[in-house]
Amino acid sequence: MGLKIFSFGALLLATATPAFAEDTDPPPAITINGTATLVSDYRFRGVSQTDKNFAVQGSLTITHKSGFYVSVWGSSVDDYVTASTQAHQEIDIIGGYKTTFGGTTIDIGALYYFYPKSRLPGDVSSSNFIEPYVSVSHTIGPVSAKATVNYAPKQKALSLNQIGPSRDSLYLAGDFALGIPKTPISLAAHVGHSFGPSWLATDALGAKGYTDWNLGASYTYKVLTFGVQYVDTDATFITTTGRNASSSGVVGSIGVSF
What we know:
Elements: E1 3-5, H1 8-16, H2 21-24, E2 30-39, E3 43-44, E4 47-48, E5 55-64, E6 68-76, E7 89-101, E8 104-114, E9 129-140, E10 143-155, E11 167-179, E12 185-195, E13 210-221, E14 224-233, E15 249-257
Antiparallel strand pairs: 1-2, 2-5, 2-15, 3-4, 5-6, 6-7, 7-8, 8-9, 9-10, 10-11, 11-12, 12-13, 13-14, 14-15
């Protein structure tokens, strides 16, 4: 449920004719939506970003009726590198355009990954990068399917040591969702593949990359959503604590939307 911003003229009309305001007001030009979520593990493309610990996440999205939108999403993370006194955060800044015709939706935009205070003084490595994306989804009744392509051009942050040489990144994903009719329960499945070397997987230093997948279910009660997912990959990423952050696991979540 979003906060709706009306034009000043529409507000005057609603005041002058309250009995008919609901029928005559035009759709809002801008809508604002937000979420706040607690997850038992933050998985990015199958790999834990919190060393398999809890994370707090939130988002704010502003959408114009034309289809253009901007969004900010944030999460606590463990960058596995810097001292514990440093801030461990990921902030994603997103801008794009979405349009729907029939049951098909096309979404195109770019996502900037920003990790504030993630490097100690004198550290010349880079962690921030930009990643354009495009997705096509189609919905038939309670069933929807989506194909997504994310391509990040060559950047220093994508190199295996985040110093250089610069590398690019290609990620292809498919998603499937089913809302069970007359229930608040939804089912979802995902599979994705990261092509080429990846700093997310220590055994993906060759050309093959790695694949991630998950199966999940969610239950919605008013503004609350409860979720559970089984997540796995065919990669290996050993953290500084000795854990394999890319191994299989069950992730639980509880979120609120407004």
